[in-house]
Amino acid sequence: MTQKIWFITGISSGLGKALAQTVIERGDFVIGTFRSQIEADKFNNQHKYEAFALVLDITKSAEIELAFKQITDKFGKVDVLVNNAGFGFAGAIEETSHTETRQIFEANFFGTLLLTQTFLPLFRQQKNGHIIQISSHGGFKAFPGFGIYNASKFAVEGFSEALAMEVAPLGINVTIVEPGPFRTNFAGSSFQQATRIIDDYNATAGTFRDRMRQVDGKQEGDPIKAADAIIRITKLDVPPMRLPLGKIAIASLTSKLESVQKDIDNFKEIAESVVY
Hints:
276 residues; 7-stranded parallel β-sheet; globular; Rossmann fold
């Protein structure tokens, strides 16, 4: 069996780390990114012949271009691109500043978009490739106190849906992975919150912030099992466009679909009344 080359962003912790470890254990080759040169060097010393790490800040286009050149010069091909790097953020819409919003979108949306665009010419030349966009169940259904993060992931899902249709005839697959709560540091040290707090939102956004703290370390999801699920869908001839992970994720997507269908059914007459 031919060894695949995976490029995975953000492998220092969480799902990215679990995925990189599992891919290596299965015999494929990992190219992974860290924010720290010390971490990258340590990883390279541990995995001299089975992986390669580099330093990348996905919010900086020049670093993305340099990393892509380094990868293609050294390896010549990439089979699977996993856009995993990003961060969580809690805060009511009114509480979240423009600066905080832009920081979220630079990492969660623009970084993912630019990496995807950067690798597409290579995949088109290869006539194959699989793009894995790590979204969230919050990229399909919004939650009070999570709105700007939701928006960043909704945006990823929007362009990825269109992309999947654009590249399917070219032999390229796109899968949007939508994890529910997993036992990573997403709700811990890597989770950010709006600086401003407005008391009027304590019962909505405030409750969400409290719940995120309470569930940290108790989430239902196992990152290693999530990694296994992602690897499994890359082996399919026709992988899914969406892959929710976990029982809570399935419940979230289902409730959103039911809510949309309810509005369509209840207000169909009004909706259809506007045509000529």
